[in-house]
Amino acid sequence: MSERARVSGSGSALFALVGASLPMNLDPAIHNIAVVAAGNALHMTGAERSLAASIGTLCIAATILATGSLGDRLGRKKVMLLGLLVTLAGGVVTALASSSTVFAVGRALSGVGFAASFGLSFALLRAIAPEPDALARTVAKWLALQTFGIVILCVAGGYLAGVNWRAAYLVGPLVGVLALAWCLKAVPEAKDPAAGRFDTVGLVLVAVGLVSALYAVSNAASSGWLSARVMVPLAAGLVVLVAFGVWEWRSSRPAFPIRSFADPQLMVGALSGIAFNVGNAVVAIQLSLLWQYVYRYKPLEVSLGQLPFIVACIGAAAWAGSLVARGVSMRLLVPAGLLAMAAALAAMAFAGESPPYYMFVIPLLAAGAGLMLTQTPTANVFVAKPPPALVGAVGSSRTAFG
């Protein structure tokens, strides 16, 4: 194969993998707007609204490592494509829901599909760009192209969410169908050729631990941090996660190679991933809810209001990727990104009761740049560092942190 054909093929595969990752990336922006209208239309109680808002995230947490581990054994492309099909099914069930129960089932299916399609689309980057320099640039392009797709599709999804919540829930699945067709043709298969036994115990432990902890946190706003609804599942989740760590440490064929995190770069990647996800949640979720419920922005205004953040993400991802490829250390990029995020969030926190929109523009730009300066080098570590047999499990685990 000529060099031009090889580059063209890897470029086509990159676009296909971006498409496979988009349904999960689009979902928070669409769901946070559409779930309000869905709750009203389906006459959800307060508890049902809380479940509808969080069950997709809980299912992602429960299955993210399992789908990555399955991908390592059965084929990362195969499991990713199955995830896209489950995402389609979940979106259709959600869009056609006639009750809160059916709606919750659709959201649960979507969460499982997101876990497989997003986590393994990331892990497969190493299959199309195995060389370290090329991989760093490919990770950056994957992040930047994702963000560009989010710009276009979130505006459309935000508009649809304000007009017809059922149609809005079909945006991600339709993108997934197109990505599935493209991935079938362009993306190579990759898996562990000497796969051992499936670590069922470890995967059950991490699923129970993560779901318990996330369920506790989701109850904090309504019940208070010191309430039994928070403290009991939080304590149980932490105990189970400790048990998971002990089990994986002793296992000869772990689903999640916990010993690898003795590597300081992977540990920094994990810890900064928590900070990244917290910052991203504040901007993508909490800020959109603040604009809707407190400042009375319309759904389309919420989507357009996020544009400075998204534009900054695109530019900073490309820049950070080139810096990583040139050997600039994580010790410089990650602290700079975290400081920019902290400054941006502090500025938004002190914006006042009814600030004009322009007060958010500079903080949004700083937040977008900071997020990508943090995410790009740490994402590269998660796909570049693990042994070839465990790229799926470790790559998927990046989503679980935070």
Descriptive report:
With 402 residues, the chain is mostly helical. The chain has 2 domains: 3-189 and 255-400, MFS general substrate transporter like domains (Growth Hormone, Chain: A), CATH 1.20.1250; 199-254. The chain is built from 16 helices and no strands. It has helices at 3-41, 46-74, 76-95, 100-123, 125-128, 132-163, 165-168, 171-186, 200-223, 228-250, 264-293, 299-305, 307-325, 330-349, 358-384, 391-400. The longest helix is centred in the first third of the chain and has 39 residues, at 3-41. The protein is globular and about 55 Å long. Mean pLDDT is 86; it is low at 1-8.
Form type? globular
As an assembly, this protein is single chain
Structural class category: mainly alpha
The Rg value, from CA coordinates, equals 20 Å
Order of helices and strands: HHHHHHHHHHHHHHHH
Query: Helical percent range?
Result: over 70%
- Low-pLDDT parts are 1-8
How many H/I helical runs? Answer: 16
The overall average pLDDT, rounded, is 86
